[in-house]
Amino acid sequence: MRDNSSATVLVRPVIPPRSATGLWWGLLGVAAFSFTVPFTKIAVAGLSPLFIGSARAVVAAILAVLALSLTRQRLPQGRQWIRLAVVAAGIVVGFPLLTSFALTSTPASHGAVVIALLPAATAAAAVLRGRERPSAGFWAASILGALAAIGFALLQSGGFGQLGWADLLLFGAVVAAATGYAEGGLLARELGAWQTVSWALVLASPLMVVLAAVSILQQPPSGTPVQWAALAYLGVVSMFLGFIAWYRGLAIGPMAQVSQIQLVQPILTLCWAWLLLGETLTWTTIVGALAVILCAAAAVRVRLGTPRPPTNP
Predict the structure, then answer these.
(1) What is the pLDDT of residue 292?
(2) For 149-179, how does the pLDDT look when each residue is reduced to its tens digit (9 = 90+)?
(3) Can you list the alpha helix ranges (DSSP code H) found in 224-282?
(4) I want to staple 204 with a disulfide (CB 3.0 to 4.6 A). Which of 74, 88, 105, 268 is the partner?
């Protein structure tokens, strides 16, 4: 057979489409999430934190209902509703409300450093939920990251022994989001990525509507156009479109590489806090952020490299 015969021609793609596409979708989702803390800080300057945390969820729930209805998604079954309640408690109720209250008294850059624990916390939650047996290196990196974040919070609060209530709320937000991410990641294999987020929003919507109504009765909202625009971003992008992009990237994969993109989020958030809010980035903030990010990266990479124990067929 000749070399120039058509039978010997092999057509190979120049760039593997899946890996590149998954990474770009993941980066788009992380970029959307990176504005959440600065825009929450802008919104709480004129709107109550209870209204912001609940109203953004109501806006996202309306979009979720439209998406689920137009695509005629099937209803979750049985225990899936209980697992959706865990996801809703973490990413729809817990994280938005806790960060909104915390950012009324702490800079966005400070919040970004504490929330930088989220990748390592999500990995730890996935380990516990999936009953994995990671190496000691994973737990060492996770504990070091937590200690770095706690040490930063203590120094910023005025010294050891003076941890502020805003820091406690931020740590609670990290735990809530990590739990919601881990359970949502497992449930997405059954319901679909964006469907899981949408059903969680729908499930939490009655509670969030009541909280929004209570906040309006307590303090009628009267923000500036910029503050209302920030709230709109939190509802439409941070709680809905951003999750669609993020989970689509994870679904396309490779999931191991796409999940590590989240480590870029705190760096982007610090940049937006400096550019949009004019916050000064001190050496303490920069060093604290780098320490937490490096520990989180080590924890994620160690977990990804840990082989799973064999299962009996």
Answers:
(1) 74
(2) 777 766 665 544 456 788 889 989 999 988 8
(3) 225-233, 242-252, 255-259, 265-277
(4) 88
- Whether the pLDDT of residue 248 is over 50: the answer is yes
CA distance 235 to 15: 36
CA–CA dist 185, 162 (Å, integer): 36
Q: Contact at 8 Å (CB) between 256 and 26?
A: no
**In the block, residue with structure tokens 């890996």:** 19
CA distance readout (Å), 74 to 33, 77, 190, 195, 232: 28, 9, 12, 10, 29
- Are 149 and 292 in contact, with CB atoms under 8 Å apart? yes
Could you give the dihedral angle defined by the CA atoms of residues 93, 97, 99 and 102, in that order, rounded to the nearest 10 degrees?
Answer: -150
Q: What pLDDT shows up at residue 9? A: 43
What would the mean pLDDT of 116-129 be, rounded to a whole number? 77
End-to-end, the C-alpha distance of the chain in Å comes to 46
Instruction: Dig out the tokens for 167 from the structure.
Output: 């820091």
The mean per-residue pLDDT over the stretch 273-288 comes to 82
Please give the single-letter amino acid code of residue 131. R
Q: What pLDDT, on a 0 to 100 scale, did the predictor assign at position 4?
A: 52
